[in-house]
């Protein structure tokens, strides 16, 4: 059970909640903040004050006053009209993350919702009732309005949730089965539920969890390639990396040395060649730079996971209500674009290592690692697939955050496109994992020609685990199945939670 406070949620906790399905509870101090914030909203309504989103319309309609007897209609109309998401739904894990993040934002006590709203969100999380939320339709400013509206629909008993088989079912049917009572939204509550960055952050958190694992996997796979090509370990000497000073670069070099400790296949400067190609020699520099980006992304995600991102925000017991712009997703949009580039580069350099493994002009191995060169093609077309994925990544890595398009009659004239950044980052992570799967398959095969008995002990254990997934290439077969099997092996999130695939 993880206690949510609105201030201390970490990615590790989100991983436990969203991957391992750990339950949540709300800190009493946070519930008191919710009660006080709600009392302020009720006072505003009773005094008929002019406050955006509470007694007025939304966006360009912010100058339209709403009578007290229409406040509930205003919130219901908002959710129904804004539920304009399209396309395939986010995965169930992303949906769960979205609920947790929205709950954590609301219990900060700046949003003015009733305790029953946050209690229902916690109940749905703990009963694993997850909204079906279309991926497309958010501009990433004014909040993730369309995706979060589909989440809010579920709270009022409408919309769809994931059924036991992963397919959409009517919320009303599941509520009846699980004995859950929907709510009737009151003043400010609809707006508080949808004005936020939780779709892009939820997708971003899942991206980070998978990208972090992919970055670690890229190192032992690169180490396998080093053994396969009898690479020069001197390039990983600590003095080289201390001379430059990047902590992440030094850490990658250390982990590479650890993986290769005891190997009889690696060489020293001058043994076989003076220096290796960049894709081997510069592993700490390139992978280390990607780790720098990952560290940046993690920092921004954890700040945003504990942020109040709706509008308006209520301070000083309702005496100070400010209409601001914390819903603008620019910090996460930039972070997701950075993540896209960082992960794409892990695939980029991995594909170059694949080329060195299969190209007979660049190694002393059988051409394309074929058991019968000429008669059998071996890993020839695996490299094609890796090249295709890397090329696709280059188009996806174009930053979505540099685009903006005005909305709401130009009232909302600059938007972040952060949810698009997060979605494209997810695709790049999927593509990059498959490139690493291809490198792994090729390195597993190549190291057999060099002598498995000479491998570093840690890498030999990895070789044994991976060989249980993909057998040795003794003749040509449908390698697509091997590549997918290795891809799944490299994604423990999917293995632990069969609904955790980012895109269904």
UniProtKB/TrEMBL annotation:
PROSITE patterns linked: PAL_HISTIDASE
Entry's EC annotation: 4.3.1.3
Localization annotation: Cytoplasm
Coiled-coil segments: none
Entry-annotated residues carrying 2,3-didehydroalanine (Ser): 142
Keyword annotations: Cytoplasm, Histidine metabolism, Lyase
Post-translational modification: Contains an active site 4-methylidene-imidazol-5-one (MIO), which is formed autocatalytically by cyclization and dehydration of residues Ala-Ser-Gly.
Entry keyword Lyase: yes
Annotated catalysed reactions: L-histidine = trans-urocanate + NH4(+)
Gene3D superfamilies on file: Fumarase/aspartase (Central domain) (1.20.200.10), Fumarase/aspartase (N-terminal domain) (1.10.275.10)
Cross-link 5-imidazolinone (Ala-Gly): where in chain: 141-143
InterPro entries, A to Z: Aromatic_Lyase (IPR001106), Fumarase/histidase_N (IPR024083), HutH (IPR005921), L-Aspartase-like (IPR008948), Phe/His_NH3-lyase_AS (IPR022313)
Classification via Pfam families: Lyase_aromatic
Pathway assigned to this chain's UniProt record: Amino-acid degradation; L-histidine degradation into L-glutamate; N-formimidoyl-L-glutamate from L-histidine: step 1/3
SUPFAM superfamilies per UniProt: L-aspartase-like
UniProt GO molecular function: histidine ammonia-lyase activity
CDD domains given in the database record: PAL-HAL (cd00332)
Keyword hit for Cytoplasm: yes
Broad class of the protein's primary localization: cytoplasm
Family designation: Belongs to the PAL/histidase family.
HAMAP family: His_ammonia_lyase
Protein name: Histidine ammonia-lyase
Gene source species: Tigheibacillus jepli
